[in-house]
Design goal:
Structural class: mainly alpha
Number of strands: 0
Helix content: 55-70%
Distance between the termini: 26 Å
Strand content: under 5%
Length: about 60
């Protein structure tokens, strides 16, 4: 899952998705080197243009 790959496991836990993703155990490599905002940005970029727009809207809030 993209969120885990980018070190955003906290969001996965808050959304109660961890049980459904039991087969994925490792979080993102090098995620500790990026801030939370940078990890969110890279995850949204990987998900595609619709999610990038979603991120831009969140920035306005």
């Amino acid at each position: 899952m993209v969120l885990l790959r980018h070190g955003l496991g906290r969001f996965v836990d808050r959304l109660n998705l961890r049980g459904r993703l039991a087969r994925i155990s490792a979080e993102g490599k090098g995620a500790g080197q990026l801030s939370q905002g940078e990890r969110i940005r890279t995850a949204l970029e990987e998900l595609g243009p619709t999610f990038v727009k979603f991120g831009q809207v969140l920035r306005l809030i």
